[in-house]
Amino acid sequence: MLINLLILALVLIGLITIAKRRELIQISAFLFFVAQLGFAGWAVVNRSQTFLEYFTLDTLGITFYILMAVIGLITTISSIPYLDGESVRQHKIYFIALITLNLALTGLYFANNIAVGWIFLEATTIATAGLTYHRRTPRALEATWKYIFVSSVGIAIAYLGILLLESSMNSGSHLFYNDIAQNIAGANLIYGKIAFLLIFVGYSAKLEVFPLFTVGIDANHAAPSPAAAFISSALVGGGVISLLRLYFSVEPNVELFSWVKNILMITALFSIVVTAVYMGRTRNYKRLLAYSTVENSSIILLGLAISGIGVWAAVLHAMSHFLIKGLAFMQLSTIGKMYGNYRVGHIGNYFKVDPLGAFALVLVLITLVAMPPSIFFQSEFIIFSNLTKHPIAFIIVAISIITIIYWLLSKFLPILYKPVDTTNVNKKAKNNTLSIVVILITLTTLTLGVYLAPQLQELVSNISQFQR
């Protein structure tokens, strides 16, 4: 089935390449993401099976893949009106890059070998660059080259870490995650620590955490907003999956695992402090949401650093962020299309211009700032309550989170009511269908914040215990 999905993607990319009309390009892209939903269903039925030796349909990969299929379909649908004024050539490049990124992430989500996952992680760099350079502006060009160069350097560093990890075990395991878990207890401790550090630094560009998070911020800023939605959700999700698989693999080595948790804690603290500082200086709404991704990735790292129940909370937070951040960027894409810019202070009267869209934005903001009954409140409460065992870290995180919430609300809320001249607002760009989808999914997550279904609790438990 994986081969069938690849063949279908290549056929549809071929159709897009020779298409003369935008409608055919859009239909081809839509068909791919519909097929992906079908593949997600097939993966559920065939859970735990291994295909082509290097791909296993485990619970972790399937769960995030389903989320990616949903966000991918919504991204495609919202991209159609967003790109309505652009040429056939621009449509081709955009949707080919989007499908290619999706394929690379599919391989990454299901890879049961760290080296194979590394290959697909590198492939996401090229596909993301195609989306980042879509506008062909000097800023987009700068962001694209930064992304390619820094991400490639990071991936190269991660590769050195992978080689060192294999050398540390001296087991000839070919770096399957299961084999790493079985052999890591006897690994050379110094080599193991250096290996994890190198791999984690390489992954940080995709996770959007310190030290290589800046290229992700620039990519989200330069890419069209629907594409930024996919990057901030699916691509960051790929970084989370890669980290989780490595995290579970090194857990059997108690001393190495303790060191790993310290590294995750320190990185999370650096990342969240940087986010709090830079959010205050940001004057662009897309960059604000991108920095919000850094914050949420930092919270995920904190959960993993705490371990135990913290891992459960981190997995729940990662799944919730996957959906909510994608929806936030897509709703912002409608706002940017209507007002013609994303500058803080230049957008207002949104409740008057688009009441349905404004309501959707309010729900998204409630969720993002973890205001009860946000599902984020559940995951963050668990993580922060356990963080009290580390008083200094707790104080740093508490101050940073309060600052981040202040910046988010103080800059986003004026969109709803601030008096601005709306005579030039493109009211035809309203996307009521997208707003309804955002409202329904966000309300669902808010409901889960009140009552977390036992089936979802069991799913999160299975992932946090790395059960297939």
How is this structure best described in words?
It is a single chain. The chain has helices at residues 2-18, 22-45, 59-82, 88-110, 114-132, 138-169, 177-183, 189-207, 214-222, 225-250, 254-281, 285-306, 309-339, 350-353, 355-368, 375-387, 391-412, 414-417, 432-450, 454-464, and strands at residues 50-51, 55-56. By secondary structure, it is mainly α. It has a two-stranded antiparallel sheet with strand order 1-2. Helix 3 (59-82) packs parallel to helix 13 (309-339). The protein is globular, with a radius of gyration of 21 Å. The two termini are 19 Å apart.
Secondary structure blueprint with pairings:
Layout: H1 2-18, H2 22-45, E1 50-51, E2 55-56, H3 59-82, H4 88-110, H5 114-132, H6 138-169, H7 177-183, H8 189-207, H9 214-222, H10 225-250, H11 254-281, H12 285-306, H13 309-339, H14 350-353, H15 355-368, H16 375-387, H17 391-412, H18 414-417, H19 432-450, H20 454-464
Antiparallel strand pairs: 1-2
Helix pairs in contact: 1-2, 1-4, 2-3, 2-4, 3-4, 3-10, 3-13, 4-5, 4-10, 5-6, 5-9, 5-10, 6-8, 6-9, 7-10, 8-10, 8-11, 9-10, 9-12, 10-12, 10-13, 11-12, 11-17, 12-13, 12-16, 12-17, 13-15, 13-16, 13-19, 13-20, 15-19, 16-19
Question: Helical stretch count?
Answer: 20
Strand content: under 5%
Estimated radius of gyration: 21 Å
Shape: globular
Number of strands: 2
Structural class: mainly alpha
Number of domains: 2
Largest sheet: 2 strands, antiparallel
- Series of secondary-structure elements, N-terminal to C-terminal: HHEEHHHHHHHHHHHHHHHHHH
Overall pLDDT confidence: 94
Q: What share of the residues lie within helices?
A: over 70%
Distance between the termini: 19 Å
Uncertain stretches of 5 or more adjacent residues: none
Reading side by side through the largest sheet, how are the strands ordered? 1-2
